[in-house]
Amino acid sequence: MTANGNAEDTNGNSVKISSVGQTQSDTPTTRKQIFQESALAFDVTEQDCDKMLNALSQEDAPWKDELKYVSRSWVKAVMSQPMIKNKKMRPRPFEYAKKKLVDYLDWRCKNNITEEIEHYLSLEDGKEFTEVHLTGGNCMYWYGVDKDGCPNLWYRAEMTDFDKVEVKKSSKSIALIMQAAIDKMPADVYNFNVIAFFDEFNFFKAMKKPSLIPNFVKTLMKVSPDRLKSACIITSRGGSVLYDIAKKVAPATLMNKTTKCKSREEAADLLQRNGVLCADEIPTFMGGEHIQDEDIVKNYARMMKEIEKGMHANDSSITDGDSDSSITDSDAKFICKGKF
User: Region (Disordered) spans which residues (predicted)?
Assistant: First the structure.
């Protein structure tokens, strides 16, 4: 785990923690000690959640129709996160948490996220999305879920054509990939895992786009505030440089859930121990035997359909008679949930 003891201040900035109202001997020294491993650091009651949802519904704003994509579990996560004020750790103030949700809804509305997702999901071959948004390669994709049904987002720098990546355009591309899966989450799932590879890639070409990594982190914070469950970053010497760049722009609420690994084998072991991947889900490029389905990786509509199946595998609302949601034998290898 990373450990520089930062948290959010009242403006959402990363700040150094010197104490949290404890005696010197009890003062936490790592993010893991400062923040609970659970995503919910402070208790949020159903009444608190109702109050927030009611306040949002009362807003006379163009994003009102987007409220259906805001789940109770996510609202609780946003409201429960810690922040530092007067050197003491406190829950976020109601208005501060509300602003985070409003900013997200406003961004979603202004960028026509819902309409674009619906458009690309209607195209079965996925070619248009690839041609428009993946000029730098199919390097980011959803594949599989963890033991709790939370989806796994993969990023592979070695599959990125840095010469063709358009940094400004990549924000929208990342948003459409991430948001489409988030929209399909069942009521009890609101967060996801990231598995990123920065160990086998052209470092010098990557550094020609120095804003690419900060842009990704900022997009992650805008698209999915307080949704990160865990991140496993595999780095080489060059990858460590990019990791350090990311640390400078990422808040503590992201970095304290991030683990850096020096090898793919080390990462595979960690992901199995943490229940992110099953033993038979370790892909060949991590030393395992599983071959990831390229059609899922490269076809936007298929990817979202499969990740939805994985997230809803134990959802009682899905019946065997629903042909679109039934789990086939081939799907079973894609879903690792329940094998732990």
Answer: 1-30
One domain for residues 85 and 127: no
pLDDT score, position 229: 96
Place of tokens 């993969």: 154
Domain boundaries, position 288: 114-334
Q: Confidence class of residue 253 from pLDDT cuts 50, 70 and 90? A: confident
For residue range 256-313, list pLDDT tens digits in order. Answer: 899 999 999 999 999 999 999 999 999 999 999 999 999 999 999 999 999 999 999 8
Contact yes or no for 263/236 (Cβ under 8 A): no
Is 199 within 8 Å of 235 (Cβ atoms)? Answer: yes
Q: ∠ at Cα 177 (268, 259), nearest 5°?
A: 30
Residue 235 lies in a domain: yes
Select the highest-mean-pLDDT range: 7-16, 111-120, 132-141, 168-177. Answer: 111-120
CATH of the domain at 141: 3.40.525.10
Hey, CA dihedral for 101, 107, 113, 114, is it positive or negative? positive
161 and 80 in a common domain:
no
| Residues 75 and 176 placed together within one structural domain of the fold | no
